[in-house]
Amino acid sequence: MSSQKTRIFIVDTLEIWRKILINYISQTDDMEVVGEISSGQGAILMLEEINPDVIMLEVSIKERIRITDIISHIHQIAPHLIYYHP
User: Fold this and answer.
1) Cα dist. 49→32, 42, 64, 78 in Å?
2) If you ran DSSP here, which 8-state letter would residue 67 be given?
3) What's the confidence (pLDDT) of residue 86?
4) What is the pLDDT of residues 28-43, one digit of tens each?
5) Which domain CATH number covers 53?
6) Cα 15 from chain centroid?
7) DSSP state of 47
8) φ, ψ (nearest 5 deg) of residue 33
């Protein structure tokens, strides 16, 4: 059995939600938060540096760039990432 943790990157405009997610994930043995940020544009810049396995991206994030464009940029940089969009 592998002891490697799943590396999670959280992108959400609200600090309270990021803290709630970080708290929840920190209580697990198989996941770790490797980064958090409040903007999609910042996430794109940080992505290569932190190399996560999973990105949790707020779907309603409002910026100068559309969420679909953020996802497209993320997928170009890190096509291996798992992402879920309901």
Assistant:
1) 16, 12, 23, 11
2) H
3) 45
4) 999 999 999 998 888 8
5) 3.40.50.2300
6) 14
7) H
8) -85, 120
